[in-house]
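The instructor's notes for this session suggest beginning with a concrete chain rather than abstract definitions. Hand out the sequence below and ask the class to guess, before any prediction is shown, which regions might be ordered.
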Amino acid sequence: MKTLLFFLGVSIMIAAEICKALWLTPAPGMQQAVAIEWNYFFHNYIWFFRIGGLLLMLPFFMHIYPKKRWWAKILFVLPFVLYGFIYYECQYDMFAEEMFSVMGHKQMKDAKSNTVLYNKLVVGVDVNGNAHAYPIEIIGYHHQVMDTIDNIPVIVSYCTVCRTGRVYKSTMNGKSETFRLVGMDMFNAMLEDNTTGSWWQQATGECVAGPKKGEKMEEVFSQQMSLGEWIKLHPTTLVLQPEKAFQADYDDLKGFDDGTIKSSLEGRDTGSWKFKSWVVGIQAGTKSYVVDWNDLQKKRVVERNDFVLIAHPNKVDFVAFSPVLDTITYLELTPEGLLHDKISGSHFNFDGKGVSGRFEGKQLKKLPAYQEFYHSWTTFHPRTIEIK
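After discussion, reveal the predicted structure:
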Protein backbone atom coordinates (compact mmCIF):
# COMPACT_ATOMS: atom_id res chain seq x y z
CA MET A 1 0.00 0.00 0.00
CA LYS A 2 2.80 2.43 0.91
CA THR A 3 4.55 1.64 -2.38
CA LEU A 4 1.32 2.35 -4.27
CA LEU A 5 1.00 5.69 -2.47
CA PHE A 6 4.57 6.49 -3.52
CA PHE A 7 3.77 6.05 -7.21
CA LEU A 8 0.45 7.87 -6.80
CA GLY A 9 2.20 10.82 -5.17
CA VAL A 10 4.89 11.19 -7.83
CA SER A 11 2.27 10.77 -10.58
CA ILE A 12 0.18 13.59 -9.09
CA MET A 13 3.23 15.88 -8.98
CA ILE A 14 4.22 15.12 -12.57
CA ALA A 15 0.65 15.48 -13.88
CA ALA A 16 0.19 18.81 -12.08
CA GLU A 17 3.39 20.27 -13.58
CA ILE A 18 2.36 19.17 -17.07
CA CYS A 19 -1.17 20.56 -16.69
CA LYS A 20 0.18 23.86 -15.38
CA ALA A 21 2.35 24.34 -18.44
CA LEU A 22 0.63 22.47 -21.25
CA TRP A 23 -2.70 24.32 -21.28
CA LEU A 24 -0.85 27.61 -21.79
CA THR A 25 1.21 26.38 -24.77
CA PRO A 26 0.30 25.88 -28.46
CA ALA A 27 0.41 22.09 -28.01
CA PRO A 28 -2.07 20.23 -30.29
CA GLY A 29 -5.61 20.58 -29.00
CA MET A 30 -4.73 22.79 -26.05
CA GLN A 31 -5.72 26.13 -27.60
CA GLN A 32 -9.11 24.91 -28.79
CA ALA A 33 -10.15 23.77 -25.31
CA VAL A 34 -11.95 26.29 -23.12
CA ALA A 35 -10.04 25.54 -19.93
CA ILE A 36 -8.97 28.93 -18.64
CA GLU A 37 -10.33 28.35 -15.12
CA TRP A 38 -8.38 25.08 -14.87
CA ASN A 39 -5.30 26.85 -16.21
CA TYR A 40 -5.62 29.54 -13.58
CA PHE A 41 -6.26 26.97 -10.82
CA PHE A 42 -3.16 24.88 -11.59
CA HIS A 43 -1.05 28.01 -12.07
CA ASN A 44 -1.94 29.43 -8.65
CA TYR A 45 -2.33 26.27 -6.56
CA ILE A 46 0.45 24.09 -7.93
CA TRP A 47 2.06 23.97 -4.48
CA PHE A 48 -0.92 22.03 -3.09
CA PHE A 49 -0.25 19.28 -5.59
CA ARG A 50 3.48 19.32 -4.91
CA ILE A 51 3.04 19.15 -1.13
CA GLY A 52 0.19 16.63 -1.41
CA GLY A 53 2.31 14.36 -3.59
CA LEU A 54 5.20 14.51 -1.13
CA LEU A 55 2.90 13.68 1.80
CA LEU A 56 1.61 10.61 -0.02
CA MET A 57 5.19 9.43 -0.55
CA LEU A 58 6.29 10.10 3.02
CA PRO A 59 5.14 6.72 4.54
CA PHE A 60 7.09 4.86 1.86
CA PHE A 61 10.31 6.74 2.59
CA MET A 62 9.88 6.34 6.35
CA HIS A 63 9.08 2.62 6.46
CA ILE A 64 9.83 0.90 3.15
CA TYR A 65 12.68 2.72 1.44
CA PRO A 66 15.29 2.18 4.24
CA LYS A 67 14.79 -1.63 3.93
CA LYS A 68 15.36 -1.74 0.18
CA ARG A 69 18.61 -3.00 -1.30
CA TRP A 70 20.98 -0.42 -2.78
CA TRP A 71 20.02 -1.06 -6.40
CA ALA A 72 16.31 -0.87 -5.52
CA LYS A 73 16.91 2.46 -3.77
CA ILE A 74 18.42 3.80 -6.98
CA LEU A 75 15.39 2.64 -8.99
CA PHE A 76 13.03 4.46 -6.65
CA VAL A 77 15.06 7.65 -7.07
CA LEU A 78 14.49 7.59 -10.86
CA PRO A 79 10.89 8.89 -10.62
CA PHE A 80 12.27 11.92 -8.78
CA VAL A 81 14.80 12.46 -11.55
CA LEU A 82 11.94 12.31 -14.07
CA TYR A 83 9.93 14.77 -11.99
CA GLY A 84 12.92 17.11 -11.75
CA PHE A 85 13.33 17.07 -15.53
CA ILE A 86 9.64 17.79 -16.11
CA TYR A 87 9.66 20.49 -13.43
CA TYR A 88 12.59 22.24 -15.11
CA GLU A 89 11.06 22.01 -18.59
CA CYS A 90 7.68 23.32 -17.43
CA GLN A 91 9.05 25.99 -15.12
CA TYR A 92 11.73 27.33 -17.45
CA ASP A 93 11.92 25.99 -21.01
CA MET A 94 8.12 26.04 -21.46
CA PHE A 95 7.43 29.08 -19.28
CA ALA A 96 6.36 32.05 -21.41
CA GLU A 97 8.12 34.68 -19.32
CA GLU A 98 11.41 32.80 -19.72
CA MET A 99 10.92 32.19 -23.47
CA PHE A 100 10.02 35.83 -24.21
CA SER A 101 12.01 38.16 -22.01
CA VAL A 102 10.86 41.62 -20.98
CA MET A 103 12.74 44.48 -22.64
CA GLY A 104 15.49 45.48 -20.24
CA HIS A 105 16.19 49.00 -21.49
CA LYS A 106 13.45 50.73 -23.46
CA GLN A 107 14.87 53.39 -25.75
CA MET A 108 12.76 55.81 -27.80
CA LYS A 109 14.38 58.01 -30.47
CA ASP A 110 13.14 60.71 -32.78
CA ALA A 111 12.95 60.21 -36.53
CA LYS A 112 16.45 61.62 -37.17
CA SER A 113 18.13 59.33 -34.63
CA ASN A 114 15.97 56.28 -35.38
CA THR A 115 17.70 53.10 -36.63
CA VAL A 116 14.59 51.08 -37.57
CA LEU A 117 14.06 50.67 -41.33
CA TYR A 118 11.20 52.70 -42.80
CA ASN A 119 9.59 49.65 -44.43
CA LYS A 120 9.04 47.95 -41.07
CA LEU A 121 5.51 47.74 -39.68
CA VAL A 122 4.76 49.57 -36.47
CA VAL A 123 1.90 49.97 -34.03
CA GLY A 124 1.51 53.73 -33.92
CA VAL A 125 -0.18 55.76 -31.17
CA ASP A 126 -0.95 59.48 -31.17
CA VAL A 127 -2.27 60.99 -27.95
CA ASN A 128 -2.93 64.73 -28.18
CA GLY A 129 -0.19 65.17 -30.76
CA ASN A 130 2.33 63.03 -28.87
CA ALA A 131 3.11 60.18 -31.26
CA HIS A 132 4.99 56.97 -30.50
CA ALA A 133 5.75 54.08 -32.87
CA TYR A 134 6.51 50.50 -31.85
CA PRO A 135 8.03 48.18 -34.50
CA ILE A 136 6.09 44.91 -34.63
CA GLU A 137 9.20 42.73 -34.90
CA ILE A 138 10.32 44.16 -31.55
CA ILE A 139 7.10 44.10 -29.54
CA GLY A 140 6.16 40.82 -31.26
CA TYR A 141 9.01 39.08 -29.47
CA HIS A 142 8.58 40.80 -26.09
CA HIS A 143 4.75 40.64 -26.42
CA GLN A 144 4.38 43.77 -24.32
CA VAL A 145 6.17 47.02 -23.62
CA MET A 146 5.24 49.51 -20.91
CA ASP A 147 5.39 53.18 -21.86
CA THR A 148 3.99 56.62 -21.03
CA ILE A 149 2.42 58.82 -23.72
CA ASP A 150 1.31 62.35 -22.84
CA ASN A 151 1.56 61.40 -19.14
CA ILE A 152 -0.72 58.39 -19.69
CA PRO A 153 0.79 55.00 -18.68
CA VAL A 154 0.09 52.40 -21.37
CA ILE A 155 0.86 48.79 -22.18
CA VAL A 156 1.66 48.23 -25.86
CA SER A 157 1.02 44.57 -26.65
CA TYR A 158 1.34 42.28 -29.64
CA CYS A 159 0.60 38.59 -30.18
CA THR A 160 2.27 37.14 -33.27
CA VAL A 161 0.16 33.96 -33.20
CA CYS A 162 -2.99 36.09 -33.58
CA ARG A 163 -1.30 39.01 -35.37
CA THR A 164 -3.04 41.31 -32.89
CA GLY A 165 -1.62 44.65 -31.81
CA ARG A 166 -3.38 46.43 -28.95
CA VAL A 167 -2.63 49.39 -26.69
CA TYR A 168 -4.32 49.80 -23.32
CA LYS A 169 -4.19 52.26 -20.45
CA SER A 170 -2.30 50.49 -17.69
CA THR A 171 -3.71 52.51 -14.79
CA MET A 172 -5.91 50.48 -12.44
CA ASN A 173 -7.49 51.93 -9.30
CA GLY A 174 -5.36 55.03 -9.69
CA LYS A 175 -2.12 53.01 -9.85
CA SER A 176 0.12 52.31 -12.84
CA GLU A 177 0.03 48.52 -13.23
CA THR A 178 2.68 46.24 -14.72
CA PHE A 179 2.15 42.90 -16.44
CA ARG A 180 3.93 39.71 -17.34
CA LEU A 181 3.30 37.12 -20.01
CA VAL A 182 2.05 33.78 -18.63
CA GLY A 183 1.20 31.92 -21.84
CA MET A 184 -1.63 31.79 -24.34
CA ASP A 185 -5.27 30.78 -24.53
CA MET A 186 -7.30 30.44 -27.74
CA PHE A 187 -4.00 31.21 -29.52
CA ASN A 188 -3.88 34.62 -27.85
CA ALA A 189 -1.30 35.94 -25.41
CA MET A 190 -2.36 35.92 -21.77
CA LEU A 191 -1.08 38.71 -19.49
CA GLU A 192 -1.03 38.67 -15.69
CA ASP A 193 -1.13 41.86 -13.63
CA ASN A 194 1.42 42.00 -10.83
CA THR A 195 -0.95 43.35 -8.16
CA THR A 196 -3.81 40.83 -8.14
CA GLY A 197 -2.45 38.03 -10.35
CA SER A 198 -5.51 38.32 -12.61
CA TRP A 199 -5.29 37.15 -16.23
CA TRP A 200 -6.11 39.45 -19.14
CA GLN A 201 -6.69 38.60 -22.81
CA GLN A 202 -4.34 40.54 -25.03
CA ALA A 203 -6.80 40.76 -27.94
CA THR A 204 -9.71 42.16 -25.93
CA GLY A 205 -8.23 43.64 -22.75
CA GLU A 206 -10.76 41.61 -20.77
CA CYS A 207 -9.90 39.91 -17.48
CA VAL A 208 -10.90 36.24 -17.80
CA ALA A 209 -9.61 34.81 -14.52
CA GLY A 210 -8.73 36.08 -11.05
CA PRO A 211 -10.03 38.77 -8.69
CA LYS A 212 -10.71 41.25 -11.52
CA LYS A 213 -12.57 38.79 -13.76
CA GLY A 214 -15.08 40.58 -15.98
CA GLU A 215 -13.29 43.94 -15.97
CA LYS A 216 -11.80 45.43 -19.15
CA MET A 217 -8.80 47.63 -19.72
CA GLU A 218 -9.47 50.88 -21.57
CA GLU A 219 -8.09 50.67 -25.09
CA VAL A 220 -6.02 53.49 -26.58
CA PHE A 221 -6.53 54.07 -30.31
CA SER A 222 -3.65 52.71 -32.39
CA GLN A 223 -2.87 52.04 -36.03
CA GLN A 224 -0.72 49.51 -37.84
CA MET A 225 1.36 51.24 -40.49
CA SER A 226 4.75 51.20 -42.17
CA LEU A 227 7.21 53.33 -40.23
CA GLY A 228 7.89 55.53 -43.24
CA GLU A 229 4.23 56.45 -43.68
CA TRP A 230 3.81 56.93 -39.93
CA ILE A 231 6.73 59.38 -39.81
CA LYS A 232 5.32 61.23 -42.83
CA LEU A 233 2.05 61.76 -40.94
CA HIS A 234 3.70 62.23 -37.51
CA PRO A 235 7.13 63.81 -38.10
CA THR A 236 7.77 64.42 -34.38
CA THR A 237 7.10 60.79 -33.43
CA LEU A 238 9.36 58.81 -31.14
CA VAL A 239 10.27 55.29 -32.29
CA LEU A 240 11.04 52.29 -30.08
CA GLN A 241 14.55 51.02 -30.81
CA PRO A 242 15.74 47.39 -30.83
CA GLU A 243 17.74 46.22 -27.83
CA LYS A 244 21.03 44.63 -28.90
CA ALA A 245 20.75 41.81 -26.35
CA PHE A 246 17.66 40.50 -28.15
CA GLN A 247 18.72 41.00 -31.77
CA ALA A 248 18.78 37.24 -32.47
CA ASP A 249 15.21 36.97 -31.16
CA TYR A 250 14.08 39.85 -33.36
CA ASP A 251 15.77 38.18 -36.34
CA ASP A 252 13.66 35.07 -35.73
CA LEU A 253 10.63 37.18 -36.71
CA LYS A 254 12.14 38.19 -40.03
CA GLY A 255 9.43 37.87 -42.65
CA PHE A 256 6.59 38.28 -40.15
CA ASP A 257 5.70 41.75 -41.38
CA ASP A 258 5.06 40.66 -44.96
CA GLY A 259 3.76 37.18 -44.12
CA THR A 260 6.70 35.24 -45.58
CA ILE A 261 7.90 33.85 -42.24
CA LYS A 262 8.08 30.05 -42.21
CA SER A 263 6.13 29.14 -39.10
CA SER A 264 3.06 27.01 -38.51
CA LEU A 265 1.93 29.44 -35.79
CA GLU A 266 2.97 32.82 -37.20
CA GLY A 267 2.97 32.14 -40.93
CA ARG A 268 0.27 33.36 -43.30
CA ASP A 269 -2.16 31.43 -45.47
CA THR A 270 -2.18 33.46 -48.68
CA GLY A 271 -5.66 32.24 -49.61
CA SER A 272 -8.84 34.03 -48.57
CA TRP A 273 -11.10 33.29 -45.60
CA LYS A 274 -8.91 30.52 -44.23
CA PHE A 275 -7.76 29.91 -40.66
CA LYS A 276 -4.56 31.96 -41.01
CA SER A 277 -5.63 34.29 -43.82
CA TRP A 278 -5.03 37.99 -43.29
CA VAL A 279 -8.12 40.09 -42.67
CA VAL A 280 -8.90 43.59 -41.47
CA GLY A 281 -11.27 43.70 -38.53
CA ILE A 282 -13.21 46.94 -38.02
CA GLN A 283 -15.10 48.10 -34.97
CA ALA A 284 -17.83 50.58 -35.93
CA GLY A 285 -19.86 51.41 -32.85
CA THR A 286 -21.43 48.22 -31.52
CA LYS A 287 -20.93 46.36 -34.81
CA SER A 288 -17.82 44.57 -35.98
CA TYR A 289 -16.90 43.79 -39.57
CA VAL A 290 -14.19 41.75 -41.22
CA VAL A 291 -12.76 42.25 -44.72
CA ASP A 292 -10.45 39.80 -46.47
CA TRP A 293 -7.01 41.30 -47.10
CA ASN A 294 -6.82 39.97 -50.67
CA ASP A 295 -10.19 41.51 -51.49
CA LEU A 296 -9.13 44.83 -49.99
CA GLN A 297 -5.99 44.94 -52.13
CA LYS A 298 -8.07 44.38 -55.27
CA LYS A 299 -10.84 46.86 -54.46
CA ARG A 300 -8.66 49.37 -52.55
CA VAL A 301 -11.85 50.93 -51.14
CA VAL A 302 -14.51 48.99 -49.23
CA GLU A 303 -17.49 51.11 -48.18
CA ARG A 304 -20.55 50.42 -46.08
CA ASN A 305 -22.99 52.64 -44.22
CA ASP A 306 -20.92 52.29 -41.04
CA PHE A 307 -17.40 52.64 -42.42
CA VAL A 308 -15.09 53.18 -45.34
CA LEU A 309 -11.89 51.11 -45.45
CA ILE A 310 -9.00 52.33 -47.59
CA ALA A 311 -5.91 50.41 -48.75
CA HIS A 312 -2.82 52.51 -49.42
CA PRO A 313 -1.20 52.21 -52.87
CA ASN A 314 1.87 50.72 -51.15
CA LYS A 315 -0.28 47.61 -50.43
CA VAL A 316 0.86 47.66 -46.81
CA ASP A 317 -1.01 50.41 -45.01
CA PHE A 318 -4.74 50.74 -44.45
CA VAL A 319 -7.12 53.00 -42.58
CA ALA A 320 -10.83 53.01 -41.72
CA PHE A 321 -13.04 56.06 -41.30
CA SER A 322 -16.58 56.83 -40.32
CA PRO A 323 -18.18 58.16 -43.51
CA VAL A 324 -20.13 60.82 -41.65
CA LEU A 325 -18.78 64.32 -42.20
CA ASP A 326 -21.42 66.73 -43.44
CA THR A 327 -22.10 65.69 -47.04
CA ILE A 328 -19.28 63.20 -47.47
CA THR A 329 -20.75 59.94 -48.72
CA TYR A 330 -18.07 58.45 -50.95
CA LEU A 331 -14.28 58.46 -50.95
CA GLU A 332 -11.95 57.26 -53.69
CA LEU A 333 -8.20 56.77 -53.55
CA THR A 334 -5.98 58.79 -55.87
CA PRO A 335 -2.72 57.38 -57.30
CA GLU A 336 -0.87 59.72 -54.94
CA GLY A 337 -2.48 58.09 -51.91
CA LEU A 338 -4.89 60.95 -51.17
CA LEU A 339 -8.56 60.41 -50.42
CA HIS A 340 -10.88 62.26 -52.79
CA ASP A 341 -14.49 63.04 -51.93
CA LYS A 342 -16.43 63.21 -55.19
CA ILE A 343 -19.30 65.20 -53.70
CA SER A 344 -17.34 68.13 -52.26
CA GLY A 345 -14.17 67.81 -54.34
CA SER A 346 -12.14 67.79 -51.12
CA HIS A 347 -8.91 65.84 -50.65
CA PHE A 348 -7.78 64.21 -47.43
CA ASN A 349 -4.41 62.73 -46.54
CA PHE A 350 -4.10 59.13 -45.39
CA ASP A 351 -4.58 60.27 -41.81
CA GLY A 352 -8.02 61.71 -42.71
CA LYS A 353 -7.08 65.37 -42.51
CA GLY A 354 -8.53 67.64 -45.20
CA VAL A 355 -5.71 69.15 -47.28
CA SER A 356 -7.72 70.89 -50.00
CA GLY A 357 -11.25 71.75 -51.07
CA ARG A 358 -14.31 72.51 -49.02
CA PHE A 359 -13.21 70.39 -46.05
CA GLU A 360 -9.62 71.60 -45.82
CA GLY A 361 -8.53 71.43 -42.19
CA LYS A 362 -11.37 69.09 -41.21
CA GLN A 363 -10.63 65.68 -39.72
CA LEU A 364 -12.38 62.45 -40.67
CA LYS A 365 -13.17 60.24 -37.70
CA LYS A 366 -10.87 57.21 -37.67
CA LEU A 367 -12.28 53.85 -36.64
CA PRO A 368 -10.42 51.03 -34.88
CA ALA A 369 -9.15 48.68 -37.61
CA TYR A 370 -6.72 45.80 -37.18
CA GLN A 371 -4.90 43.46 -39.53
CA GLU A 372 -5.20 39.99 -37.97
CA PHE A 373 -5.45 36.33 -38.76
CA TYR A 374 -8.99 35.32 -39.67
CA HIS A 375 -9.19 32.85 -36.78
CA SER A 376 -8.30 35.53 -34.26
CA TRP A 377 -10.86 38.13 -35.29
CA THR A 378 -13.70 35.61 -35.53
CA THR A 379 -12.76 34.00 -32.20
CA PHE A 380 -12.97 37.25 -30.24
CA HIS A 381 -15.73 38.78 -32.41
CA PRO A 382 -18.06 35.80 -32.95
CA ARG A 383 -20.90 38.00 -34.28
CA THR A 384 -18.75 39.81 -36.81
CA ILE A 385 -20.19 40.62 -40.23
CA GLU A 386 -18.12 39.21 -43.09
CA ILE A 387 -17.88 41.56 -46.07
CA LYS A 388 -17.60 39.45 -49.22
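Then share the key points. The mean pLDDT is 86. The two ends are 65 Å apart (CA to CA).
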